[in-house]
Hints:
Helices cover about 25% and strands about 35% of the residues. By secondary structure, it is of the alpha+beta class. About 25% of the residues are buried.
Amino acid sequence: MILNHEIVTQNLVIKSLNLKNFNKSYSxxxxxxxxxxxxxxxxxxxxxxxxxxxxxxxxxxxNSVLLGIFYKKNNLHIGNIKIDNINKxxxxxxxxxxxxxxxxxxxxxxxxxxxxxxxxCFNHLRISAxxxxxxxxxxxxxxxxxxxxxxxxxxxxxxxxxxxxxINQIILSxxxxxx
Length: 179
């Protein structure tokens, strides 16, 4: 699914990611042990071709939207935010985020993107509940969602294997406020 408009924030432009606007460094992000340490995609080797195939699959999907996060000052694609498992019947969806360009880490970029996409989901996609999950040791992702106004919903014990030990899955959520 594609988003037909851009989301513009103080520092970012968030828009549908496509084969013309993605950063050619995308595959190197996915192969970088710092970037991918909490991503399930870390178990595969990635190439420009595999990234193009992923973008194409997301573009064709009926229940997900892959958005590129572009830094406004230089229009550089620095990461992605994906709205996935969109369920119109239950008015819910899931969000996942990756800031791939490490120069933009620790600058509140993820929080800014989460806030903007949350508002867009509530106001334009008519979603009333959003969910996200992260490894309990992924402090950066957890902090970004909390700063964006999300709440910790629960922890699922021993859900993931990470560095040869079982760790918890943290589920976060946010709900549209009733008027």
